[in-house]
C-alpha cells in the first residue's frame, strides 16, 4: 500500500528571512497578540462570550467617564461656591486635580478596552502608562503628614518599577551607522 506522508501546513518564514519593516513594526508595537480563536466549537462560543463581555465593559466605561465628568463639574461647583466665595485653597485644587486625573485614567482604560476589541491585542505599553497615571494621581492626593515612611517608600518603589518598565518597553537601541552612509 503506497501512502503519502501527511501534508504539513505551510509555516511562516523564519524571523531572519522576514523583511525588517515587519520585524520593526512588531517590535515597536509592544503588544501581546491574543491567540487566534481555536477550532473547537465550545471554545469559539466562549471566545465570543468574552468579546461580548468586553464590549459591555466598554459601554460601562463610557458611563463611568460621563459620570466622572459630571462629578468634576459638581466638585468644582461645590469648591467655588463655598466660603470664601470664588476662592480655592490648595487642598481644593488638589481635590479638583484628583477628580480630573480619575476621569483621565478612566479614559485610558477605555482606550485599552477599545484597542483590545479592535485588534485582539493587549497594549502593554499603554497599560503601564495607565498604571503610572494612577500612581501619579495617588501621589498628588497624598498627605505626607499622616503617612508612614514605609508606605511612602513602597509607593516610590512602585513608581520606579513602573517607570523602568515603561522605559525598557520604549527603549530603542541606537542603530549602528553603516560604512557607506558616513
From TrEMBL:
Spans traversing the lipid bilayer: 52-70, 82-110, 122-144, 150-169
Keywords noted in UniProt: Cell membrane, Membrane, Transmembrane, Transmembrane helix
Pro residues composition bias: residue spans: 1-16
UniProt region (Disordered), positions on chain: 1-31
Claim: Transit peptide is one of the keywords in the record: no
Keyword set includes Membrane: yes
Membrane topology annotation: Multi-pass membrane protein
Pfam families found in the cross-reference section: PsiE
Cell location: Cell membrane
Protein name in UniProt: Phosphate-starvation-inducible PsiE family protein
